[in-house]
Each structure stands twice: as structure tokens, then as C-alpha cells.
């Protein structure tokens, strides 16, 4: 299905922001790296968040693979949040930021997400309302918009998944791992003296 104009805009802005962050990391170092304990804690918390995000996004992919455009999915992760995919994406993005062993990068990521994605969510909500009308309205009354409520979890005993679509969705979670690897590679290049350090970040 062709991408909508708003989705193309969101993807473009997100990629542009990622490029800016990567450039920032390539020529900076984290001051917390000098403290092995604090740096290690930041890295560990980041990896834990990436783990939750990866599993969470795969969980979402199971339930929406092949159903996203014609069915209102309200079970599994979509029974505890109307936007679980974006919630887990935020966890993963902040997690990647923490693996840089800085506080600045995850804060910048959280601010970017907080500015852009409320508009994205609102746009998608309007689309779902036009497609599913009263059913979506009732769903909104019982399900949180963003932060999950695990006590609301509902899952069927069986669920049909379209493997071709799910397989494609699986690759969308790999960017967490790739960015984690890039952050570590950048740190190694700094330590080897290959990349200059123009400034340090907290």
C-alpha cells in the first residue's frame, strides 16, 4: 500500500534527525565514559530498554501483520495501548541513546519524539475514526492512548498471522541493534584516535 503524505513526512524527518544524531556521536564523546560505573549503568539500562523494545515491536507485528489497513486490532498489545508500536519505539530509541553513555542524547531523542509523534498519533487516530467509527470510539474509551495498562491485556488462544508480512516487519526492529553497534563502533574509533573529539557531552 502506498505511503501517505504524512507518513512520508514523518519518515523523512525521523531519518534526518537520525543523521544529525549520528554526526553528533561521530565527533563527540560522553563525559560519563570516564566513570566506568556510571557509564556502565547507563549502557546496561539502555540495553535493557532495547531488549524490551525489540520484543514489544515483534509482539505488535504479530498482531497487525496483514490486518493494519482493514481491521481494528484490539487484542494483544493493542488491548493495553492504542499505540504500543510507538511506545516500544520510544523505549528502544531512548535505550539506544543511553548506550552512548550520555544523558544528553536520550533527552534529545525523547524531546524529538514528544514534538513529532503526538501529531502522527492524532493523524492516525482521525483515519481510524473515519474507518471504524463507533467501534473505534468505544475502543478509545477503554484503552489508553499511549502508556500501556497491563491489567487490560486480552489475548486470544489462537491468532492467524500472515508470515510474509510478519517477516518483513521483523526487519524493522533491527535498527535498534544497528544503532547500538554504531554507537560502540564510534566509541572504538575515538579510542583508537581515528575520529577526532570536537566536544564532550554529559
Notes on the protein architecture:
This protein has 202 residues and is mainly α. 65% of the residues lie in helices and 3% in strands. The chain is built from six helices and two strands. The chain has helices spanning 5-26, 36-64, 84-98, 104-142, 163-170, 174-191, and strands at 28-30, 199-201. It has a two-stranded parallel ribbon. The radius of gyration is 19 Å and the shape is elongated.
Task: Give a short summary of the structure.
This protein is mainly α. The chain has helices spanning 5-26, 36-64, 84-98, 104-142, 163-170, 174-191, and strands at residues 28-30, 199-201.
Name its key features.
202 residues; mainly alpha; two-stranded parallel ribbon; 6 helices; 2 strands; 3% strand
